[in-house]
Amino acid sequence: MNLNIARPVFRFAPSPNGRLHLGHALSALENQRRAHAADGRLLLRIEDIDRARCTPELEAQIIDDLAWLGIDFDGPVFRQSAHFADYQAMLLSLIDRGLAYPAFMTRGAVKRHVAEHEEQGKTWPRDPDGAPHYPGDDRSLSLEERWERLESGVRHAWRLDMAAAIEAVGKPLFWLEDTDDGIVETPADPGAWGDIVLSRSDAPSSYHLSVVTDDAAQHVTHVVRGMDLYHATSVHRLLQELLGLPTPVYHHHRLILGADGCKLSKSNQDTALEELRAKGVSPADIRVMCGF
Ligand code: GLU
């Protein structure tokens, strides 16, 4: 009998740049429920690449809130800030293949560029989150110009050349979405995002690059996260394909909306777990509030 059958691996991956709210509780509980039903393992990954906004105090609060809520994690806590070298290696492999380029336009310059375009009545493409695509003029810089600017120390980000990346993959991409109606093959549309950021001068990796690197490194088989990240999965599929990484099954769950009908934010006092705990709300109450 083969007892070495790999168990499914789930992960909850909060960013310690704010406090957990009811939306995070729902996500953690949904991961716990699914991991339990599949006899899987549940890992905790702290997504702290944003060194300016993530703090040890917020991380400690998150870990405390999750323990209070009754979520047990398997294995040690995985911190992204300890893995910058891994993300750098992934970035270098994309640069080597001519799929990433240094992008020199500041946020302000992009804003002005887009505004000028739109003032002339022309539309400018926007990504699924509503942010304008990067203009991409830097894509056509000669190698010489690129290195001259890099050597002069100008601040820059590294961006994926989306058109080149899609061409390099050369086939339509899909992911498996675990829905109420079963597993559905879902087409990925990474082009909708334009030239995404892979690393910035102030953060040596981006969310997209780190998340696919770590899901592979941690052997994650099931990604359970909110609908707000549904479209990001298109980018994750593309990066997995480019970097030769495996693809987990995805489930994007419903979001808890605030009284204004918008997604909860970390600044929202009423729904912060810390606040609710202080008011005497119990973990069982939180489960009910999250629809469990
Ligand atoms: N760190 C992300 C967040 O807190 C979640 C990333 C993911 O689940 O892929 O929204």
Automatic annotation (TrEMBL):
PROSITE patterns: AA_TRNA_LIGASE_I. GO terms for molecular function: ligase activity. It is an enzyme of class 6 (ligase). Residues 116-139 are annotated as: Disordered. Its EC number is 6.1.1.-. Keywords: Aminoacyl-tRNA synthetase, ATP-binding, Ligase, Metal-binding, Nucleotide-binding, Protein biosynthesis, Zinc. Gene3D superfamilies: HUPs. It comes from the Bacteria. PANTHER family: GLUTAMATE--TRNA LIGASE, GLUTAMYL-Q TRNA(ASP) SYNTHETASE. Belongs to the class-I aminoacyl-tRNA synthetase family. This is Glutamyl-Q tRNA(Asp) synthetase.
